[in-house]
Write a structure and sequence with these properties.
The chain is mainly beta. 3% of the residues lie in helices and 43% in strands.
């Protein structure tokens, strides 16, 4: 029996032994290969609907639609909204192809596990289109070969509190006769999280507008001129990692965070990692770009033109084409009044050619600019490289020192134990005065995040104190509230948490090789266990300091997110149907890397002690 058939039989065995206990959400089924499928059916497992749209017309908050394997020539548009604690969920079972989803003025909609692509008669350009659709979740989909953008929050109305996670997105704007390339994800709203997505072969990775958005732990990679065979401009495609521009109806970009992304292999000549252009001077400001690993880029990092308070801290940049060509003399530019720029604790490895400089600063962008504690090295000229001022005059920067990566040829940019970058980073800010308590005044709180109500806050070190969790930041008054009372003196250093005597320069803190890995194992209950009532799920973690959080899934649906020890969860099986269920624990990496998740999965049989299961019920291996 092949794997696909095994999976289908498991699902059917669950449905055939489904006994509902207590009040539960409705679970509907769509299967266009079922001989009796019809939109006039009940939508139950033995009487499925023909179209996903029928489910979209029917479902209310908390309902789930399971779509069986097949090709569905539909653009699905939900007609009702979910609720913060009870989303409307569309879930693919097996390989389900669909034109796309169109979510307009409906909130708390979850789309999980679909293949979304152009199907010859596609009436929608985007894979997923969102407009004023707050609180929606786009999870673990494969979005490719669309007429236009992969995922789009339309600029005619803000979409807030969206989670875009775990999707594979590629070849957007690439259909037969139209291989010009398009944007993978366009964000227009506030407090959206874009994380753990794998994006490649696109025209741009992310365009973004709004405030308090978080882009983290994505892998943006592999874009080539050959991807865009119908591109007509003579200079070739222009690909940006993170882009903001002010024209049209978009809103300003303010107070957002881009962290722990891995951006590599963008070999087109006009490629940039970050490009911020507030051409209409709408007041865009405050972007933190930190702990990212970026390299093998066609030209240079990019710049601000103008943008206020762009902070690049603790990044590792490597192998820019600009380092080998006369295209540009600098990695990044601050132009037209881009005041308040910061370049601190970054590694620039083979990014600048001999005689060049890391940054260019025009005369109207100097106010508030600060650069120091960076490491700059070009292996072509080594210790004989000559750098333009002012980079060569920075007091604490490491000039012409090999940063000592673990395995540069194989893209391992962790630091060796004897790296000159270890314990060499400088403070991001300092305390403003001597004091004690849980509210700390600092010179500049803009380097940090309290999670903005959508995720956990940063962990920081203040002076000689142990790691502290940020609970709240008052940016106007530069005060940080932490999770415990401490004492400090004026001028104490304030940094993101670190492992050793002092923070390290670059995207990674030095760790022994074994401690740089991570993983999760479900220790209890055991595989194939019979469970009922309240079940305690226990997990063993490998190097928890490398894990951002754990998500528990039941049959592919997330049921809990755990951010810190103890890694346990009480699962109430009374809220689920009796039968066989898959339990997965998935660990999400804290740092920038290609392997963004690690997981462990077991099967459990949920039983009712008062009802004996059929004698012929068997687990499938």
């Amino acid at each position: 029996m092949n794997k696909k058939i095994s999976f289908i039989v498991i699902i059917l065995s669950i449905c055939s032994f489904a006994i509902v206990r207590g009040i539960m959400a409705n679970e509907y089924f769509v299967d266009n290969s079922h001989p009796q499928a019809s939109d006039s059916n009940s939508g139950l497992a033995d009487s499925p609907w023909l179209t996903i749209q029928q489910a979209a017309n029917t479902m209310i908050a908390g309902d789930i639609c399971c779509v069986s394997q097949g090709i569905y020539h539909e653009v699905v548009q939900p007609q009702n909204s979910g609720h913060k604690d009870n989303l409307i969920t569309f879930k693919a079972i097996g390989e389900v192809k669909v034109h796309g989803f169109r979510i307009i003025d409906k909130t708390y909609i979850r789309v999980i596990g679909f293949e979304i692509t152009y199907l010859t008669d596609n009436p929608q350009a985007e894979g997923i289109f969102l407009l004023r659709s707050h609180g929606s979740e786009i999870l673990n989909n494969y979005i490719h070969h669309t007429l236009s953008l992969g995922i789009r929050q339309h600029y005619s109305g803000m979409t807030n509190l969206t989670i875009i996670k775990g999707n594979r997105i590629e070849y957007n704007g690439s259909t037969p006769g139209n291989e010009t390339g398009e944007i993978a994800i366009s964000i227009n709203g506030n407090k959206n999280i874009i994380e753990y997505n794998d994006v490649s072969h696109v025209g741009d990775f992310i365009n973004i507008w709004g405030e308090k958005n978080i882009i983290r732990n994505n892998h943006f990679h592999d874009c080539y001129t050959s991807d865009f065979r119908d591109f007509t401009q003579t200079e070739g495609p222009h690909i940006d990692g993170i882009q903001y521009f002010s024209p049209h109806l978009h809103i300003p970009l303010n107070r957002s965070l881009v962290e722990c992304n891995y951006i590599n292999n963008i070999s087109v000549p006009h490629a940039h990692i970050i490009l911020l252009q507030d051409e209409e001077k709408d007041g865009s400001c405050e972007l933190v770009f930190r702990n990212n690993l970026c390299g093998k880029i066609g030209s240079y990092i990019g710049g601000a033109a103008p943008f206020i308070n762009l902070r690049l801290i603790h990044n590792t940049f490597f192998d820019f084409l600009e380092a080998q060509s006369p295209k540009a003399m600098y990695c990044i530019s601050f132009l037209y009044g881009s005041t308040g720029g910061k370049l601190i604790n970054n590694i620039f490895f083979n990014c600048v050619r001999n005689g060049g400089g890391v940054y260019y600063l025009d005369t109207v962008s100097k106010d508030g600019f600060y650069s120091d504690y960076n490491a700059v090295y070009n292996s072509n000229c080594g210790q004989n490289c000559y750098w333009d001022i002012p980079m060569r005059d920075e007091i604490h920067s490491l000039i012409n020192y090999d940063p000592g990566f673990v395995d540069y040829p194989n893209n391992d940019f962790h630091l060796q134990h004897n790296s000159p970058c270890a314990n060499a980073a400088g403070p991001l800010t300092t305390t403003a005065s001597t004091g004690s308590g849980d509210v700390i005044g600092v010179i500049d709180a803009g380097y940090f995040s309290d999670g903005w109500g959508i995720t956990e806050g940063d962990y920081i070190n203040v002076g000689g104190n142990d790691s502290l969790k940020i609970l709240f930041i008052d940016y106007d008054n530069n005060s940080i509230t932490v999770n415990q009372n401490i004492s400090w003196i004026s001028g104490d250093q304030v940094n993101l948490s670190y492992y050793h005597q002092a923070p390290d320069i670059g995207a990674y803190e030095y760790r022994e090789e074994e401690k740089s890995r991570y993983g999760v194992t479900i220790s209890k209950p055991f595989h194939m266990a019979r469970v009922n009532g309240l079940v305690k799920i226990e997990m063993d973690m490998k190097n928890i300091e490398n894990i951002r959080y754990i998500i528990l899934f039941i049959d592919g649906l997330p049921i809990a997110t755990i951010h810190e020890p103890p890694y346990t969860y009480i699962w109430d099986t009374n809220s689920i149907k009796l039968g066989i269920h898959n339990l997965e624990a998935r660990a999400y990496a804290l740092h920038a890397q290609k392997d963004m998740t690690q997981s462990d999965m077991i099967r459990l049989l949920v039983v009712d002690d008062k009802i004996q299961p059929p004698a012929n019920l068997q687990f499938l291996k």
